[in-house]
Write a structure and sequence with these properties.
single chain, alpha+beta, six-stranded antiparallel beta sheet, three-stranded antiparallel beta sheet, 9 helices, 9 strands, globular
Length: about 230
């Protein structure tokens, strides 16, 4: 079995306390109770996901439709693309998007003893700094889950339950992460998740994009927020 210590040794990195606690509590394992590859005829959506819903691991529903935590094996054996300048930029990947973008800790910068979280774009040579630390990253992702919720995607995923089914899942995510992050963050998220939904032409929103951006600026601002760096040779 791959341990977090194995991954730390491989990447010459020490994960922050919050990440270690979530790992220990199986909050970073979207395969909780299952092993890859799944048995023939089984799928993650139909066989694994239903077992996670009562106590969701991190960002299971609030990470967005294209967000996925990497497995321990994927983290340990991550293959850095040839064009990435890994001598200059020290990334520790922990999640990905459907488009192949990568979320990672960025060891090059340290703020109050922790490293920021970056989004490494697959189709360009740019990396965006999106959060001061892992806790702020969780809060930002859970905020952004309430904006620009595509109606067609929602209908596919929730059918008749619609936006209220999605709200139920967001609240489940919030309940499971509550013991781990700041009470102030929980209060803000609970307020937004419980508010009246705005019905737009093609999407829903719990708060306006302008209001969400204001919250991010007010609560998560730091020197490098949303800065972009080039990460390729």
């Amino acid at each position: 079995m791959i341990t977090l210590e194995n991954i730390e040794t491989k990447h010459n990195y020490t994960f922050p306390t919050l990440y270690k606690k979530l790992w220990e509590d199986e909050m970073l394992n979207w395969m909780r109770g299952f092993e890859l590859p799944l048995d023939e005829g089984k799928t993650w959506a139909e066989d694994v996901y239903p077992t996670l819903k009562d106590n969701p691991p991190l960002l299971l529903n609030s990470g967005g439709s294209d967000f996925e935590l990497l497995t321990a094996d994927e983290m340990l054996n991550f293959e850095f693309p040839e064009l990435w300048d890994t001598e200059k930029h020290h990334f520790i990947p922990f999640a990905k998007t459907a488009e192949g973008n990568i979320y990672a800790f960025y060891k090059n910068i340290e703020i109050d003893g922790e490293n920021p979280i970056v989004l490494i774009w697959d189709d360009m040579d740019e990396t965006e700094i999106i959060a001061k630390n892992f806790e702020d990253f969780i809060f930002r992702k859970m905020l952004e889950a309430t904006d620009d919720i595509d109606k067609e995607d929602l209908d596919t995923d929730y059918g008749e339950a619609g936006i209220e089914g999605y709200r139920t899942d967001l609240l489940a995510d919030l309940k499971s992460i509550t013991p781990y992050i700041k009470k102030g963050y929980i209060t803000v998220l609970n307020d937004i998740y419980s508010t009246e939904v705005q019905d737009m032409l093609f999407s829903y929103g719990f708060k306006s994009e302008k209001r969400l951006n204001m919250i991010i600026k007010e609560m998560l601002d730091f020197k490098y927020l949303d800065d972009v760096i080039e990460h390729e040779v």
